[in-house]
TrEMBL record:
Keywords recorded for this protein, A-Z: Signal
Keyword Signal among UniProt keywords: yes
Keyword Signal: yes
Annotated region (Disordered), positions in chain: 160-180
The organism of origin for this protein: Candidatus Kutchimonas denitrificans
Ranges of biased composition (kind: Low complexity): 166-180
Signal sequence, renumbered to the chain: 1-19
Listed transmembrane segments: none
Domain spans labelled DUF4440: 45-153
Protein name as it appears in the record: SgcJ/EcaC family oxidoreductase
């Protein structure tokens, strides 16, 4: 075989390999798009459950949405690590409020491998010690796919335009007193 023919055969093999690799990448991208859609639907459902349980004062249901080693770091408060600590923090915070209404709007979603993230805004309205309370802020949630295929919150961080309700916050500082 001449060197020209050998070069042409090598080029044809290389092109075929590239075409096959391109087809594989296209298939993986399609699978990734499907996986992303599935993850987005699961995260939407989880967010809806979080909001409904929070409004109902069901700290146990909210905490169950977190991974066993998950972290919840609400605005201006220490982070709670692990489901029991998260449930305890939520129970304490929820006990201070009545008529909780939480509006959450996800503005961005992304996924890479076994992790996904959601970024958005929220408005929380409630009554605290008989006074109206409203907090607006942003949140970032990182969720991780579990071995069983479900998604759990691995990390949840939020900001707020209000001081925390607990220790050193509104009640202790007197911000909830009449005239403040």
């Amino acid at each position: 075989m001449s060197s020209k023919r050998l070069a042409l055969v090598a080029m044809a093999v290389a092109l075929a390999a590239c075409a096959q690799e391109g087809a594989q990448q296209a298939q993986e991208m399609e699978m990734s798009a499907g996986a992303m859609e599935d993850a987005a639907a699961a995260i939407d459902e989880m967010r809806g459950t979080w909001v409904q349980a929070y409004e109902a004062g069901d700290a146990a249901t909210v905490a169950a949405l977190y991974a066993t080693d998950g972290v919840y770091a609400p605005a201006s408060s220490d982070a709670a690590s692990g489901r029991a600590a998260i449930e305890g923090m939520l129970t304490e915070t929820m006990a201070m409020m009545v008529n909780r209404q939480l509006e959450v709007t996800q503005t961005e979603f992304g996924m890479s491998g076994e992790l996904s993230y959601g970024l958005g805004t929220y408005t929380l309205t409630a009554e605290v010690e008989g006074e109206p309370y409203e907090a607006n802020g942003t949140y970032l949630v990182v969720a991780k796919r579990q071995a069983d295929g479900s998604w759990k919150i691995q990390a949840h961080v939020s900001t707020s335009d209000q001081p925390p309700l607990m220790e050193g916050g509104m009640m202790e500082s007197g911000m909830m007193e009449e005239g403040n």
